[in-house]
TrEMBL record:
Residues 201-293 form the Peptidase M20 dimerisation domain. GO terms for biological process: diaminopimelate biosynthetic process. The Mn(2+) ion enhances activity. This is Amidohydrolase. Keywords: Hydrolase, Manganese, Metal-binding.
Amino acid sequence: MPARVKETPAPPRPPAVSREVLRPALEFCLDVHAHPELSGAELRTADRFAARLEASGCTVTRGVGGGHGVVGVLRNGEGPTVMIRAELDALPVTERTGLAYASTVPGVMHACGHDLHLAAAGGAVAELARTRSAWRGTVLVVGQPAEETLCGARAMLADGLYERFGTPDAVLAQHTSPAPAGTLAHAADFRTPLLAASTALDVTLYGRGGHAGTPHLTVDPVLAAAATVMRLQSVVSRETSPAEHAVLTVGSIHAGERGNVIPDTAELSLCIRALSDPVVDRMAAAAERVVRAESAASGCVREPDLTVTSRSPALLPDPAATAAVRGAHEALFGPDRVTDCGPLTATEDFAWFGGQGVATVYWMLGVTGVGPWRAARAGGPPVPANHAPEFAPDLRTALPTGITAMASAARRILDGEGNGR
Ligand SMILES: [Zn+2]
Ligand SMILES: [Zn+2]
């Protein structure tokens, strides 16, 4: 999730977080990083996160949303309600960081920093619990499953998240980015979304298998898939205005087992992202037209299957609530460490939590250590970004920054500033 950073800031200075808050947060982060779980299978992570919230005095409900969703409630008298959201899931990536606490689960890695988000959320709640005499209101904490598959937020809302636990005035989330650790970045332009809207499609093309030496007796789905992938590139380059931020990626293609057998089917998975929902809709319709036409052009034996596997709206943070939170961050970290970002073609299902009087605030949390950042700027290897096997946040700086950023943001909302209602 790339964030734009204006200049190299001074070496980060970790904000002060009390030892009683920081130490368990760090231990939790290392433990969760070593034991990542894929989207929808976050049993252990949800359990550990729930335990962290209970240790801070939250009333915790598990299994919200039909999966492993966790909701913690910290009530502290009359006042606003603020919701803190962090994601539970990891990715199907093989870790190559070489860290002492690297993943112990083959092929699964916290390559998007959700372990750090959870640790920071848990730390922020611990900090709010510790200082509860200074504020009034309710803190909701959500451990959301299945963010990477863009399903978890809607499932929790459909399970009555707000009806059961209260509708928040504002929902807060932060996301790791490959900017320098110790920096934060907020949306600066509220005319365009910070994060893109998206949809994802699975496609199956139906050929007729046979011998590699007699292709004329078959319908080759590999060739149909290749033609489809190439033609899909024209959806952005020829059918979408150059002024749009739009991207179409075919991230997965599977067909056949060996070189001398023409298979029966080919499967593609693709995602479409743009900064407005109508553009995503138009691109999805164009992609479907291309898939069906290439299938027909290849003489496929039946119509292709197209399945929409996810849909998420563009994220446009609330201007007033963002200004209030940004003010808190600049006061704590200094304006040089709080930069502008967006629009980004990253995508999230966090946007589902906002709207109808619920303000969303979302910011980027820089996680790159001083060494890799300076090396990259001096022409060395690029900084490993989210979803890369080498993605390795500098916890020493990024974790206390994340805790302080989230706790101070929640305090601003609890103090009644920038609320959506
Ligand atoms: Zn991710
Ligand atoms: Zn993520």
